[in-house]
Each structure stands twice: as C-alpha cells, then as structure tokens.
Amino acid sequence: MAERKLRYGVYLGAVQRHKRQISFAALLDAERLRPKRPPLRAIDLHRLLTPYVSVRFSEQLRAVVPLALMLIGFQALALRTSLLDADSVALGILAVIIGLMFFMEGVKIGLMPLAENVGFQMPGKTNPAVLLSFSLLLGVAATFAEPAIGALQAAASSISPERSPWLRQLLGPYSHWLVLAIAGGVGLAVSIGMLRTMFGWKLKTMILLIMPLTLGLTAWCAQQPELASIIGLAWDCGAVTTGPVTVPLVLAVGVGVAASTGRSDNPLSGFGIVTLASIFPILAVLTTAIYLTSQGPGAMLPIQPPALGGWYKETPFAEIIGALRAIVPLVLLLVLVQTRLLGQKIRQRDIFIYGISMAVAGMLLFNLGLTEGLVALGEQAGNNVPWAFSENRETGAPPLYPFALGIGLTLAFAFAIGFGATVAEPALNAMGMTVENLTDGAFRKRMLIHAVAAGVGVGAALGVARILFHLPVWMLLLGGYSIALALTVVSREEIVNLAWDSAGVTTGPVTVPLLLALGIGLGEVVGAAEGFGILAMCSVGPIISVLGTGLWIDMKTRGRKRRSKKA
Questions:
Q1: Is the CB of residue 427 less than 8 Å from the CB of residue 247?
Q2: CA distances from 504 to 246, 276, 351, 507 (A)
Q3: pLDDT, tens digit, for every residue of 9-66?
Q4: Which of 72, 138, 26 is nearest to 376 (CA)?
C-alpha cells in the first residue's frame, strides 16, 4: 500500500472524533455494576500452587527420604531390627521436609534480596569500618539462625562428666559460651571475607597462612588432657556453621559488595567466604576452651538436670520461641541497616513479609521434626549398628557377624550415608552447575558431585573408625589436612576455591543431626569418651578428592594440548 501524508491536526481530529467525556462518579457506578469475579475453585488452586510447591518439596524430599530409607533398610536387612516409634519418626521426617521447604523458600525470597541490596549499597554510602562491623554482626546473627546449631546442644546429655568434664561443661553450663564462640568466629570470617572481596586477596594464600596455625593449635591442645576431648567438637563446629542460612546470606552480601567494588566480573567472587566461615569457628572454640580450662577446676559449674515446668518449655511453644529467637534478630539487623543506615525503604514489602513468615514457619516445623525424626533415627542406628560386630548391649545376644565382617559392614554403612547424603544435597547440585559453566565443561557437574560425595563417604567411614577403635581425632585431622595443604600448594587458585568451599556445602541441616546422632550413639555403645569428629572428617575428605580430581583434569588438558601441537 502506498504511503500517504497526513497533517497532524487532521490526525488529532480523526482520533478525537469518537471520544466522549464521562465523570469519575459514573465510572465508579459502572464498576460497581460489573459482575463479581468467580471464586477460585479447588482445581484452580491446584493448577496455581502445584507447580510452585512440587519443585521445592521434591528438592527436600530427595535430600531426606533416601537417607532415612537407607538407615531403616540397613537396620532391617543387615541388623534384623525394626524401627522403634515408626509413626513418630515418620511424622518427624515429614515435618523436617516441609520445614526445610518453607525455610529455604523464605530465605530465598525474604532475606537474600535484602542482603544483596545491603551489600551493594554499603560500600558507596558508608566507610569500610561500618561495612566490616555489619559483616561481623551478620555472621553472628546468621549463626544463631542456623537449624543445625540445636543439634550440637542436644548432644549434651550423652557426654559423661567423669570422662570428658570440660566437654560436658561446654555443652552444658557453658553452652552459651560455645554458641557465642561459634558466632564470633563466623562473624570474623565474614568480615575478613569482605576484605578479601574488596581487595582481591587470593584464597590459596589465606589458607596456607591460617590452616597451619589451626592445625598447630589443635596439636597443642591434644597434648593437654583437659582439652583433648574438645578437639572433635571444635572441628565439628566448623562444619555445622556453613548451613542454609549462613551460606546464601553471606554469599548474597559478598555478591553485592563485589558488584559495588567493580569485581563482579570475576566468576570466583562468591567463593572463599564459606571456607573462612568453617575455619574461624574452630579457632574460636579452641581458644574459648583454652581460656576456660586455664581457670582451673574451680571454674566448673554444677550440671543442673533439665528444668521442669513453664509453658514456654513445652511443645510447641518452645519451638515457636526458638524459631522467633533465631530469625527475628537477623531480620531486624538487615531492616535497620536498610532503612536507617542506608535510608532506603523496603521494596515489595508484602513479598518480604511473606518470605519472613515462611522462614519462621519453616524453622518451627524443622525444630519440631528434628528431635522426633532425624535425631531419633540416628540414635537408633548408632545403638544398633555395633551389634554387627559386638554383643547386643540390651539383650546380650552374640554378634550377628564375625568381627572383621561386622566392622566392614559398619564402615560401608557409614560410607553409604555420607555418599548418599552428599549426592542429594541441593546446594552441591547448584554449585556443580555453576562450576561446569565457569570451566566451559572441563569440570563437569556430575564429576564434581561424585568427587565430593566420595570424599564425604570416605571421611564418614574414617570418622566412624575413629570412634570404634578409639583413634585420636587430632592425628587423623593433621594427616588429612597435611595432604590437603600439599595438594593446595600445587593446584590452581580456581580449583583451590572450589575444593575448599565444596567442603562447606556438604554438611547441611539433614546430614549434621544424623551424623552427630550416629557418632554419639556409637560412642556410647563402644565406650568412647565422645562421639564427635565424623563431621570434621567429612569436611577434609572432599577437599582432598576435589583437589586430586582438579589436578587430574589439568594433566589431561595439558596432555591434550601437547598432542594437538605435535599434530
């Protein structure tokens, strides 16, 4: 069709010819007369909510159910024992799944966007001292909100005050000192991690400076009788801290700071803080224990039996108060910094309130299901597994298998738990996809997951062997981390970042209470002074396996390049 020129005045006249003015009151009357929207039917709600819920529910289902079935199946098939209080355990596991689903969704849509915005705005609007102070407070608040911290405190009743007096003190009368030491260590780690992000420090250099100090302090504590039993707890604390609250929030702030300081083009800008957050709590707990023991036996407090009475200590009020105590301080810190320090309003307030409500509800359900589900299941496994190689503690029945075969089955069971829990870990799957993209497919997601899972499985088996044979945990840690440091020296910075951070994402809110309960149950049965150390070995295992895999990939890549040049 040929173009035709038209004066603008003629065009306006043609457009306005069919217009008429109406009053606002007439518009309101017309709106009132419109038919009401039909109510949502059940099928409509199903179509809206099912795709949203099913993806999030299936993630937690894959992380919890296979592990629980493995525990139940091993006891039923290999140990010929049935699950006690099956209904209660099943309901507890369901509460854990739903609680984790709500909690992770709440953190993702309520806390992480706010944390990333705060991290982006603070470097430009405040001085570095304020940013470091905020990082310290964020690390402390995030530690209090970690679901797995409660699993450490729940282990107090199984520790003998006669065999491990100061360990029992740290988990009992001085438990608040323990939690504050862990929180302070994480806060210091986040502050140093922010400095690393701002100035571009290499993680490899920091590890080679900090880890020898940590190992040296551990070896010194091992020579002190009153401190030797605390080493396993201190190193397990490093694994407990890097959970579903600390990791995403700290990384979100780190991403914001990296974007603000112009380092967001570095694909490794988010790595490193998780590693630091798993090392500094070890130093903090050991230092706290050294201070307390230096005060002498007179500093020991009487161990009080659990207090009775009080509506606030009964279910579900205790879980509600615990959930609010964990989430509210963290939310208040972020909101105050956003509104008062940065002078910005909370955007999309309804979504923010919805996310915080989901996080609180998820923490409540998780706390309710933790004791009845995961901890009970792990304790039953810890009590039953030794029957494979020793007499049944309750009935006096002879061992089910010869000693060597029974020990082999027990170690295989520990490996399977570590491997299976790691493969199902959602955070590791997300990291695997990121690494595959950053390395252009050289380090594939499946290869990373299997390398980390194998390392965790071997670590879990070594941790269980340590309890069964009463091996000193400090020697295993010294040997394992010496290998890890030697591999770190000869590895590239990218692989070092990946390997040391992968150890942090493997110990989530599902594996921590299970492995803790399993270790404590085994320790009680075989007469060990304490059952800590499995989580510590689960952390060093994947560092070695991923560094070894990275070196193998580099060798293959260099060999391929040499062959292509010759051709």
A1: yes
A2: 11, 10, 30, 6
A3: 666 666 666 666 777 677 767 777 776 666 777 887 777 778 777 877 887 787 778 7
A4: 72
